[in-house]
């Protein structure tokens, strides 16, 4: 069985999972057509709507977040219409690829990595063309930028026929996110980031507008057909076999999160972000993300002193921590410190002290 000795994950996904959550998965299995499952499903709906701040519904998907990108693109864009993707990092780039590979016509607004999108950029694009949907990434995990989703949403909603779809895979539950109040039609996330659960499950709040749109799309595919999902959800069920063990873990995690309160959780993440910024800037490192848009859940440190990130990672591994070494084209010139999920400020302090030993402060 599990031993206590392990490397604690300080990477921005998958993140460290608490032992209580690991244990919650290890219950006897139940059939997903049983009354016990319907009860679990209903209980989860109630709690998920609270953490997503939505009156609608939250779909549970037996996939990672990538699956729900495909679901969003397939269900929300009609065959003869276009989609606008806001790109500013590795994940937003990949979602645009997913739309293209599903046969959709894609336009993009691309900003330099490390920069945020502004409502003005989106307003300009929407004046020029009609889009069935605008797709944005709330928290670009590769760069550590948090986009101004609320303000962009206000612009999108000047157009009745345009849906606003948001990837908040590393945002929601760590960074403030208010789905209905902000006017987000679909907010999707994965279990293994700010939710601090094991990987393998994805979640998405979906408005009635999304379901109305989906009905107008001829070929929604099969696995991610939201119209079918909704019919099952009405019966507290899923179309195909759901990740039951992960749902047990989710049940426990949502109780703990609601007890902590979302507001305290957001505040804890902001505190850890500020600690990380303070550490980086006083050690002559830079902060890669644009000021004013720096993520509460992950900091991308600009490696201005030019430390050897491989050596740093080896050193930290020796102390029991798995560190990130930067993502994609900014690997090495940056590295990321995740302060995400159930991490506490006291633990972050230990991690930063460990890094101090390496940089020789
Ligand atoms: C990790 C991540 C994804 C991909 O999610 P998977 O669960 O790995 O499929 C998408 N978007 C963002 C912002 C991410 O951080």
Query: So, CATH architecture of the largest domain?
Result: 3-Layer(aba) Sandwich
For the secondary structure, the number of strands is 14
The biggest beta sheet reads:
7 strands, mixed
Q: SS-based structural class?
A: alpha/beta
Describe the 3D structure.
This protein is an alpha/beta fold. The chain is built from 13 helices and 14 strands. The strands form 4 sheets. It has a 7-stranded mixed β-sheet, sandwiched between helices. Helix 5 packs parallel to helix 6 and helix 11 runs parallel beside helix 13 (345-359).
List the helices and strands and how they pair.
Blueprint: E1 8-9, H1 19-24, H2 35-52, E2 57-61, H3 65-76, E3 82-87, H4 90-101, E4 105-110, H5 119-128, E5 133-137, E6 139-140, E7 145-146, H6 149-156, E8 163-167, H7 179-182, E9 186-190, E10 202-206, H8 208-216, H9 226-233, H10 244-260, H11 262-282, E11 286-287, E12 298-302, H12 309-318, E13 321-322, E14 334-338, H13 345-359
Parallel strand pairs: 1-13, 3-4, 3-5, 5-8, 8-9
Antiparallel strand pairs: 2-10, 6-7, 9-10, 11-12, 12-14
Helix pairs in contact: 2-10, 5-6, 11-13
Considering the chains and any ligands shown, give keywords for the structure.
361 residues; alpha/beta; Aspartate Aminotransferase, domain 1; Aspartate Aminotransferase, domain 2; 7-stranded mixed sheet; 3-stranded antiparallel sheet; 13 helices; 16% strand; globular
Question: TL;DR?
Answer:
By secondary structure, the chain is of the alpha/beta class.
């Amino acid at each position: 069985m599990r031993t206590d000795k392990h490397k604690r994950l300080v990477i921005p996904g998958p993140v460290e999972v608490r032992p209580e959550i690991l244990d919650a998965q290890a219950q006897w299995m139940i059939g997903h057509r049983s009354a016990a499952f319907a009860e679990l499903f209903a209980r989860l709906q109630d709690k998920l709507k609270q953490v997503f701040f939505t009156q609608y519904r939250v779909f549970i998907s037996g996939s990672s977040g990538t699956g729900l990108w495909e679901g969003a693109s397939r269900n929300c864009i009609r065959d003869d219409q276009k989609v606008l993707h806001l790109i500013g990092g590795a994940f937003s780039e990949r979602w645009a690829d997913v739309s293209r590979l599903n046969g959709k016509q894609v336009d993009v607004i691309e900003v330099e990595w490390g920069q945020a999108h502004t409502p003005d950029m989106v307003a300009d694009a929407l004046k020029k063309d009609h889009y069935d949907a605008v797709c944005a990434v709330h928290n670009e995990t590769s760069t550590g930028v948090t986009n101004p989703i609320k303000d962009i949403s206000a612009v999108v909603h000047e157009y009745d026929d345009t849906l606003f779809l948001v990837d908040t895979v590393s945002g929601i539950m760590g960074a403030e996110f208010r789905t209905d109040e902000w006017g987000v039609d679909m907010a999707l996330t994965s279990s293994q980031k700010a939710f601090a659960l094991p990987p393998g499950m994805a979640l998405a709040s979906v408005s009635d507008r999304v379901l109305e749109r989906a009905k107008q799309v001829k070929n929604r595919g099969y696995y991610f057909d939201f119209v079918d999902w909704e019919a099952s959800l009405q019966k507290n069920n899923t179309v195909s076999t759901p990740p039951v063990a992960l749902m047990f873990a989710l049940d426990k995690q949502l109780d703990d999160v609601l007890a902590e309160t979302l507001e305290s959780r957001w505040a804890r993440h902001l505190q850890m972000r500020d600690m990380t910024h303070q550490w980086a800037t006083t050690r002559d490192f830079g902060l890669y993300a644009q000021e004013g848009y720096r993520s509460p859940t992950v900091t991308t440190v600009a490696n201005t002193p030019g430390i050897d990130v491989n050596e740093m990672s080896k050193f930290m591994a020796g102390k029991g921590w798995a560190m990130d070494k930067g993502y994609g084209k900014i690997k090495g010139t940056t590295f990321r410190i995740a302060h995400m999920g159930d991490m506490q400020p006291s633990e972050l302090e230990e991690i930063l002290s460990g890094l101090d030993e390496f940089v020789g402060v």
